[in-house]
Design goal:
The strands form five sheets. Strands 1, 2, 4, 6, 7, 9 and 12 form a seven-stranded antiparallel beta sheet that branches. Strands 3, 5, 8, 10 and 11 form a five-stranded antiparallel beta sheet that branches. The protein has 31 helices and 18 strands. It is α+β, with helices and mostly antiparallel strands and 808 residues long. It folds into four domains: 109 residues, Cytochrome c-like domain (Cytochrome Bc1 Complex, Chain D, domain 2, Orthogonal Bundle); 175 residues, no CATH class; 157 residues, Jelly Rolls (Sandwich); 227 residues, no CATH class. The longest helix has 29 residues. It is globular and about 100 Å long. The N terminus and C terminus are likely disordered.
Length: 808
Amino acid sequence: MGMSFRIGAAASFALLAGMAQPVSAAESSSLDSVIAEDPVLSAGLKIYAEQCLQCHGEKGSGTEDYYPDPLVGDGSIGELTEIIVDTMPEEDPDLCVGEDAAAVAAYIHHAFYSEAAQIRNRPPRQSLQRLTGTQFRQSLSDLYAHFAGLQETTWESHQSKHGLSVSIYSGKGRKKEDRKIERIDPVIDFDFGKEGPGEGVPWDEFRAHWDGGLRVEQTGRYEIVVHSKTSFTMDFGHDSNQLIDNHVQSEGRNEFRRTLMLTGGRVYPLEIDFNQRKRKGETPPASISLSWVPPGGIETIIPPSALVPGWNPPALQLSTTMPPDDSSYGFERGISVDTAWDSAVTDGAIEFANAMRDRLWNDYVRKHRKDKRSREEKLKDFLSDFVTVAHRGNAEAVQPERIVDPAIEAFEDETDIIKSVVLMTLKSPRFLYPSLDADRTVSQQVANRLALVLHDSLPSEGWLQDRIKKDQMRDEQSIRRAAERMLDDARTRVKLKQMLHHWMELGPEDDLRKDDEKYPGFSEELIADLRTSLDRFLDETVWSETSDFRQLLAADWAFTNQRLADFYGDAWKPAKSDDDNADEPNESGEWTQSVRDPNIHVGVLTHPLVMARLSYHSATSPIHRGVFLIRHVMGRTLRPPNEAFSPLSPDLHPDLTTRERVALQTSPESCQICHSRINPLGFALEHFDAVGRFREKDMNKKVDASGSYLTRDDERIEFDGARGLAEVAIANPDTHRAFVTRMFQYFVKQPVASYGAHRLDELTESFRQSDFNIKKLLVDIAVIAASDALPDSEPKKKQPKNNQTAGA
């Protein structure tokens, strides 16, 4: 606040009150009366006009010549008072102190900083958005599944169905009478030797056929690796898609690698036909292993949890990579349309058209081979169904003939017809902008929103299409029933896990390598195990019956295996059971819950993967950890630092602990505006080193893990260590609102207040009343988003329509 500017004390109150930036006459009048009736706010407004106006402007939006940044944030009145006393006015900080500083802080908070002020000054609205890259990929996958079939993958089946089905035959063929073994193999990793695969099967001449699916829980590039010197073929995605052909063995070759772009939440069918044949000379023993390299991971045998036995329907394997979407608001949004995006959409549409021609259309013809319709009539019906589902409506509203008929008239070749229809359909705003559905039925609009929120997709399943046709989703109760059914689905589980990874700032591209001399044994294999450990913990916590958010922050156990127990010590040994000994961990690949230790295991807050991510190469980073806690856990905002800085090198102060070094570097007054909030939270995790191991000392000094948190209500809460931090976070309303807000924004991709000014309060209270049940919260969010389609929804009453019809 450069405060040289003065205006007369006689300036009218009405002129001064205009600075609060009301958005309507009614709100302006209400705001004026609130300020007029409060002597502190009235005094603060007058001081603001006299001492702050020149730099910060009438509406707190800043001025080009003095201070261009707007007055926004969530600082408490106490924090604002402290800043004003210490630094404002810039040329004479002593000019505004004591009661004057408290009064102007109260006014600034009321006019600009409070949640009500932020909604009043910048009324949130639902923006028109295109499909994000993830939504485009998932929507194409479900369009494919509409014709190919979709395996229902409930949490129960996810937990119980593991491995691949196998039939083993004696001799060369696969005759029923020669089948000797039928079973489910947890993994494929066999060296049959001269014992063979089992009783009644000769080791030197047999055939094995594995059948099942690959369960993918993260979208990205996967490398599929088969090691074998024996004859085999492998189909993947569809029985007509041969991924590896080693039917005629290549001399000296025993490794086969294929890189695939796969979509999370899908099960890709796979078959391996393995043929051990007698040779004229010496027959080598048969062997085979099936491995993968998942995104950001290392090569490992594909685990049982990623394999599904039995038949699985074909699944779309889309190799097109979509450009990254805007994430400036903390969640992905489809708001930009540029050449890169348009080109990727075109590539994806062409790839989908090829899959339709090569697989779906051929399958459709085969399925309807006894149908008396002509081939052209079948093709027209096939393509009309595709357009109708893709444009999220019924045939009457979509009028697919507008796209299909011209293509059939223009081209003779089926390939050209299919490509033309697919390109016209998938490049249309009707497909790319899901909210352009105002002319659809209410049930269709509801289903469109449910599918987009929970599955990042469009409604394609038979049961959901049936409810749309019968117009059975016109009230909140029916919407909730549909949302609860859609919740128990692999696509929802994948999206929720991605949201939690995003919340923890974790990604497959993270470089978690550390100084080998300081942290020997922190290997790529260990990091891969930590990723699995964390994901298993998230699944177990979220998809349990209680689905308790508090356990994410405070559970006193983790998932462990032999390698983690060896590296991290006693707290990572498996818990005792009736037949196990806690002092004897399971083999490296086996996973189990660890012993309970409330000081070392504190939910995700102290999981080594999170601690390593929020550390430097050779030291901890209380600043990174504190920023994560203040922004992501407590949900508070921070201004970007005025200037970039590098951490002080430990070599410059070899006797200082990390805490002492950070306190020294951030001690200047200009730093303390933010670091007085950041550091006390980050210091609470100093018991955990750069790889997440618990330590009692740092630089031969006892670790000081004391910390504190200043709430929005100016209450300073003191605590000690990670456990104390977790207890404060769990009990604090800031944490609850922050998690609800993040969940809503990630799933709906719109501001929660755009669905009603009190929606966040209502959702947060419902979250508390449900004992912080994450699954119930997600259903509530989906119901709110889908109910927006109902004629009497709150947003519809208050906002102009932005989803008017658009041509195909």
